[in-house]
Structure formats: C-alpha cells, structure tokens
Amino acid sequence: MKSVPNTPQSTTPKVALFVTCLVNQFRPNVGFAAITLLEHAGCDVIVPKAQTCCGQPGYNNGLRNAAIETAKSTIKLLEPYDYVVLPSGSCTGMLSKHYPALLSDDIAWKRRADSLSSKTWELCQFLVECLDSTLPTHSNLEGKTISYQDSCSCKRELNNTSAPRQLINQLCNGSNLVELKDPESCCGFGGTFSVKYPDISERLVSDKTQDITATGADILVSADLGCLINIAGYTSRAEPVPFEVRHIAEILANNLETPSMTSGSKK
Amino acid sequence: MKPGKPTSPETQSNPPIHSETSSNQALFFKAKSSEALLDDTLQQALKKAQGGFIEKRSQAIADVENFDSYKQQAQLVKNHTLDHLAYYLTQFEENVTKNGGHVHWASTPEQLNNIILHICERRDAKSVTKGKSMISEEANLNAALEAAGIDVTETDLGEYIIQLAKEPPSHIIVPAIHKTRQQVEALFRETHDLGERDLDNIAALVDEARLQLRQKFLDADVGITGANMLIADTGSAMVVTNEGNGDLTATLPKVHIVTASIEKVVPDLESASAILRVLARSATGQPITSYTSLFSGPSGIEDLDGPDEFHVILLDNQRSQMLGSPFEDMLKCIKCGACLNHCPVYSAVGGHAYGWVYPGPMGSVLTPLMTGLKQSSDLPNASTFCGRCEEVCPMGIPLPELLRQLRNKEHEDHLTSWKTRFSLKGFMWGIQHPRVFHWITKTLRMILANSVLTRLLEKHVLTSWYSSKELPKNYSKGTFMEQYQQDSKQKKSKQKKS
C-alpha cells in the first residue's frame, strides 16, 4: 500500500485529473463522471490544460528515450498538485510504477518521479483507500446485474481489486454485482498488441465475452477504457449485443445519459 | 561481444547458431499462430490441459502456508549462485572428476553434439536412450545421432510421442500437450505392430509405450539425460521425473551422459531443496515429483549395476553473455513452465507457433537471446503485458520488462517496419506538443463523427483492428478537453454576469 502524503486534511485537497488520451478521445463523459465523483468527495478538481498521454504506446514499443521525455514533462505538469487521479489503472501504473523505473538513472528526476508516484491514484482506489468519503448513491441501476472486469494493470500493478467492487455495491442501489468465472485472464487488448496480433486478440476477447455473457450481466464495467474499447468493439458486432459496456465512473456517478459503448446496442 | 547486448547474427563472433542444429522457425510466429488458432484439434487439446495446470498449481500453493517465503529462498539460492557462477562450476567439475566422472565444456550446441558423438563412437554405440533434456533440444541432438547411424529413443512418454510424430516439443514440461488421446492412439497404430489390440484409454496407451520402451532401455549402449540441477559440492546431477524413465536411462546403459546448461549449478543439496520446493508446485502442482534422482558418477566397485562411464556436458550457448547483462534474470529460470501455462497468448496458440525450443513468455525472451533477435523479432511483441507470467514465476523473473527491453533493442536496431516507427515516433512527438496534440484529437473526433470518413479509416488504416472489432463511437460534442474548456468559459462568464 502506498503512503498517503501529509496533506493538511482541513483544507480541500487539490486534485489534478489526468483524463488519459483514450477518455479524451473516445469517452469524454468518463472524465466528467470522474470530476463529479471527486467533487462529491470534497476535492478541488483541476484539469491541467497541457496534459496529453502518459507515453505508454512508445514505452511499450521500444521508444524508451521518447518515453523518458514524456515522463519528465508529465511529472513537471502534475507535481504541483496534492494528488493526481486517473480514471485508468494502466495509466496510473505508468505514472506510479514505470516513471520511477524509467528515470532510475537520474537521481534528481528519480526523486521527482517517486514523489509523483506517492500521490498518484487510480480513481476508485483514491475514493476508497485515500479519502474514504461518503458519496451520493443512486437507484438508476436497480435490478440490473453488473459485472466488473479487473484490468490486468489494476489487478497486478496496483493491487486494486476491492475498491471498485466496494463502490459499486455502495453507490448503485439495488444492483447485483456478479463475478466472472475467470477474472484472472487478459481481455486481449494489450495496447498495440491488439493491432499487431488481431487474430490472437480476437480469440482472447471472444473467450472473455463468453465469460461475461455467461454471468447474465446487463452491464460490463471496468476501470480501464482500453479493455472496454476492446470488449465493446468486439461485442458490437454480435446480434443481439449481449450486454452494455461502460466505464465504472459512469455508473458510480450516475452518468448514464451517454449510450453504451457497444454501438447500436438496443439495451 | 559486450555483455548486455542481445545477440544478433551481425554482431556474433561465432558462426550463426543452429544453422545445422535446431532450426529456428520463430520468424514465422505470426503465420503459425494464425494457423494454430484455426486448428480445432489443437485448440481442444490446449483448452483441456491449460485449465488443469492452473488449478493444480493454485491448489498446491494454497496447501502450503508460506509459498512466498519458499520463493524468496529459491531466489536467494539462484542470486547467490549466479554471483559466483565460475566458482561453483569449477567446484562442480572438481567433484565430478573426484567421483570418477568427466566434465566437458561446450560453448555451442554443435560442440555439445560433437562431444556426444565422439563418446558414442569410442564406445561403438548402436543405440541410445534419452531422458527428457531441453538442452539436447537446443542442440537438435537426435538428428545428429541419427545422422551418425545411431538408434535414438526418447523415453519420456511425451517426448516419445512427439519423436514418433517427428515434431518438436510444444511445452517445456509437457512436450506433447498439443496432442489429443485420439491422435496418440492413431500414431501408435501407425508406428507400432499392434494388431487388433484395444488402445482406447490412456492406461492402455501408457502400457503400450512402456512395452516398447522396456526393450529399448535394456538394449541401450548409452543413456543421455538432462539435469534439473547440478550440485557443486557433491558433483551430482539431479533429475526430476514422474515416470522413472530418467533412472532407467541413467543406470542401465554402460555410459551415462548428462547434458546441462551452465546456470543449472547450485552450491549444495540444501540449496537444491530450496528450488525443489517451488519447482514441482509451480510446474505440475505436485509438492514434489514422483522421482528425484541424483547421479554422482560411474558405478563403484561395490555397486551391482550402473554405468562404467559418467560424463557431464556443460553447455553455454550464449548464457555467459547474459550474465551481467540486463537479461541476467533470465538465468534464474528453472524451466517450470508456469509462465507458459498462465500466458493468454501461449494458451491460445500453443508452443509450436513460437518456432524454436522454448515457447511462451520465457521462450520469447530466450529465443531472441540465443538465436538472434532478427530471426525472432515477432516474439517479444507476442505479449499483452498482462503481467501474469511475472506473477506466477517462482523465481520472480520480470518477464514483461525483459520483453520490453527486447522491444527497445528492436527499435534501436531498426528491426521494426518503417510504418510502425513512423507512427510511433509521430505519436510520441505529438504528445510532447500539447497544442498540436489537442488539434489532432479534435480533428480525429470530427473524422470519427462522420460515418463515411470512419469507414475509410476502418477499411484502409485500422484494418487489423477492424478485422474483428468496431471503432469506438464518440457520442459527445467534442473531445474531453474541448468540452471542459467550453464549460469552464461558460462558468466564468456566468460568474462575471452575476
């Protein structure tokens, strides 16, 4: 468990929201849902204007030097705030685990990376483990079955499996959270992997979709838009579309006006 | 060659490896994995086996109170040994010699084969039995022995099956994992003289193999085994099996040859125990394998049986180059196969797609290091970085990070396509320039809002994604940053008015 920096609790914490490039591009309402949740939790939310992407596409594809430059500019941008919160386990892992590793040869930068790491949180984990705040509940998903897919980075890099489940149970009144038979397996996204090996990726997401469908879930949620784009992209072709796909922030913040990510979904 | 650099043929001072030994088909990973996905029988075999291993391992670990401390102990042993590798290898050699055995050093797989051929020739060997040895797979030893007119029989059931099928192993501990029972039955009917005998259950298949192998064990002039560990202070080779075939291979023929790689050495029996505690649990989910045998030299005067010659051949094959390099962690691998069993990619395509001896995550690191990155440039990319391999590795090898480093090397060495390099460089430049980046994201959103343009993008640019998936639809009026800034402006103007 990471240590929480000593921020005077009497003042409102200044939280920088790093919205992530995928949310910015494909699912802006996730960013707004995150702001709603953070404000309900008593945070002063700031969206630094110069934010872009955490640099994972380059980092995972051999462009180490470019990733180092991205790490430095992102650290510079985000270090003035009390906390940095991201609606993504994967990008949180990049900032909190991989930036310090990337900058380990440079003492001054390593220190800055470590300091950013200690105040960087995935949204659900921040709300539960750092703030422990009481958030408004809603009954818009009453009677709905919800399945939560652990992203590999939430699960293995952040050890973040209980916070999202706890929040669904607490905030979505009358909903029923069901577990996948195989919650350990990757959905087959893997960033550029899904483009490099489309047929292997298809096999993995097909297995995942079968597992989700078998739970009888009405809605699939996850804390990572990458997994969701992958699963929604695949299930959109099914007839009928087996379930809705949404980011967890949307259902927690009762931000349900935007249609499901499965285009053409009749649900 | 400098340590720390993966070996590519251009920089090798030695002749290209495996030109005459194990052929490296790793170049064809992409095509072979696509074929594997369409092979229904293979898919059936993989699905059946995989689930079993995952369950058994997790049960075996749940059965012990402190598997993490076992892991730590095993890792301490390996770290210590690798830090003093030359010392323990020398000690091992001294003790083998003291016991009346011989140690041979082979830099390359060719040298290993030549040493074995020389021993066989001297002993006028006509027939050789083999216990499972991945090192001999690295050297493609069977082909070399057969070319010299020697009859070779693999005695591990899985290896025996794939030898009959003339296929390479598809898993490091379960070489015939890709075969169904029905396929094995058909293979035995084709190659054995069976008449009308019933073979429709696994026990009958095992009996049949056993029947064939008994005579081979008795006839063999030379027995060749691998080694799971080499014990420095006793000069012993440790072999773990579940079938007892290792013991019969080692003790019945007059000559016993052990093939092992240099990183297999450990200081003493206590260190070996630390590794045994995690090995079988991680591999098959057993607390310990059925047989754990130690071979410490030729038979003594008082011994009733056993070989009169004992040889250990130590193979380097690029391992000394990994020592002290960023890839040193790979030398901690104890070949348990847990990373294969838990890898989504291996589980989907099986071992043959990887094209060489070692498949799965550990193979995707080892194959490029041993045979050249250029010949296997697909492998480091064949991972979703889900991190499960690292999680289940009892030796704590950071496999995703090692794969990432190989990807760095591929980029540096221009082994990736110009298109990939161009788009990645462009992307990384773009995210360093927020204004440009936000302009591009705005434009892209407008393109995606237009169904005609989206179709064009799907059919001509994002073809591989579109082959099985739709692009995400954006239902909003702009990117997040656009909308957020508009909202903030509106809020400010309202505040001014009020």
Architecture overview:
The complex is a heterodimer of chains A (267) and B (498). Chain A is built from 13 helices and 8 strands. The radius of gyration of chain A is 18 Å and the shape is globular. Chain A has helices at residues 21-26, 28-40, 56-59, 64-78, 89-102, 107-118, 123-131, 152-157, 162-171, 193-196, 198-214, 225-235, 248-252; strands at residues 14-17, 44-46, 83-86, 120-122, 145-149, 176-178, 219-222, 244-247. The mean pLDDT of chain A is 94. In chain A, strands 2-1-3-4 form a 4-stranded parallel beta sheet, sandwiched between helices. In chain A, strand 7, helix 12 and strand 8 (244-247) form a beta-alpha-beta unit. In chain A, helix 4 (64-78) packs across helix 6 (107-118) and helix 5 runs antiparallel to helix 6 (107-118). Chain B has 498 residues and is of the alpha/beta class. Chain B is 52% helix and 9% strand. In chain B, helix 3 packs across helix 12. Classes of the chains: A alpha/beta (267), B alpha/beta (498).
List the helices and strands and how they pair.
The complex is a heterodimer of chains A (267) and B (498).
Chain A: E1 14-17, H1 21-26, H2 28-40, E2 44-46, H3 56-59, H4 64-78, E3 83-86, H5 89-102, H6 107-118, E4 120-122, H7 123-131, E5 145-149, H8 152-157, H9 162-171, E6 176-178, H10 193-196, H11 198-214, E7 219-222, H12 225-235, E8 244-247, H13 248-252
Parallel strand pairs in A: 1-2, 1-3, 3-4, 5-6, 5-7, 7-8
Helix pairs in contact in A: 4-6, 5-6, 7-9, 11-12
Chain B: H1 29-38, H2 40-63, H3 67-83, H4 85-98, E1 102-106, H5 109-122, E2 127-130, H6 134-139, H7 141-147, E3 151-154, H8 157-164, H9 181-191, H10 202-219, E4 222-225, E5 229-231, E6 236-241, H11 245-251, E7 255-261, E8 265-266, H12 269-283, E9 291-295, E10 309-315, H13 319-322, H14 338-341, H15 344-349, H16 360-371, H17 388-392, H18 399-412, H19 418-431, H20 434-449, H21 451-460, H22 463-466, H23 480-497
